[in-house]
Amino acid sequence: MEAPAPPAPTEENDSGDWSPDSWRSRPAKQLADYPDPLAVERVERRLAGSEPLVEIADIIHLRAALSRVAAGEAFILQGGDCAESFAEFNADKVRATYNLLLRMGAELRAASPIDVVHLARIAGQFAKPRSSATETIGEVTLPSYRGDAVNGPAFNARARVHDPKRLLDAHRQAQVTIELLHAFASASYADLPRVAAEVGLQAPPHAVTMFTSHEALLLNYEQALTRFDEASEQYWATSGHMLWIGDRTRQLDGAHVEYARGIGNPVGLKCGPSIAADDLLRLIDRLDPHDRAGKLVLIGRFGAKLVDEHLPPLMRAVKRSGRNVVWTIDPMHGNTCTVQGLKTRMVSDIIREISTFFAVAEAEGVHPGGIHLEMTGSDVTECLGGSGRLARADLERRYLTGCDPRLNERQALDVAHEVAGLIAHASASRARAA
Ligand code: PEP
Ligand code: CO
Fold it and tell me: What is the DSSP letter of 392?
């Protein structure tokens, strides 16, 4: 496929000297380190010649939905695996995630008149930033596992080599996943009245659009799937509807921010305890210089212990700057602990961080715009607590994640139930204030 001619600057694409590959001249963290550059180029060419995974019209539709979140009229329900896996992949697993998001969304809509934007962490969530470049077991040290798009999880030297052909496998799985989501969307239309009745949803059921999202970590993959669209005079990442920048790769002059600033897609930005208010304001300016509603989603992830200290000054500074952004909370990544040698999270900490997020948002006069969860429709035993009272002794029974611990179906529904109450309370306070 021929590279599109660079566009003339317009209000929408006026991103200075940006191009789909301008990230290559910036310092980049957490990228794969391939032994054979020619093999990488061959893979990138194949990806560049492929059809977009998602339609640009649907990305624009998501931007419109997110602008309603920015206006306080809708709520983002974002969730899925920490890392998608090649080995665990099957249609039932995708259906379980789909149905779980649908069910949770219905629970939220039953609690208040707010609209829900369903955003799955799926069809591209194959690469992981790691705190350590290597892993040591006994006397053996190997490169860390970085997600199935980069290397294999098995602890042996061959599996841990960074292999660019895995990008093609990830791309194929993403394509099949998106086809499955479309199929479930038509099938679920028939199911919606049942789901609505189960949660006591009064509003007439309407078709749910399931958008896709993932961390934009592997920039050569993202670049190869970036397309210029004549109608909008804009470049779009066609690997998913929304991409986000992780907490470890959000350096202002780094490669990941450089890539994300030039695409038309909505962009998420993880904000952990190390971000200061001025850094955040500079990042907002860089990523969304035109202050477009629905473009930028700030995803706080502080941990239940730190959120009430770190979130208020950030929310206040952003509000004072007048910027039109959405705030959501990821109550997973600041609440990871180790029990009996396994990474886990307490449902009570997850709920506490979400409740604090709602309380801070109310105090600051900001719309609490959504939640971001690691969860699965399968019956895993990775997080502790919830109404099923999963205890330490249960952890090993079905601990299946290749990366972070996920809420199982029942725990995710517990969280949705709590959030439904918080949304209802927030809507009632807003109505009183109006
Ligand atoms: C993630 O969402 O899987 C992740 C790695 O998050 P963070 O960048 O916030 O640590
Ligand atoms: Co994770």
Answer: G
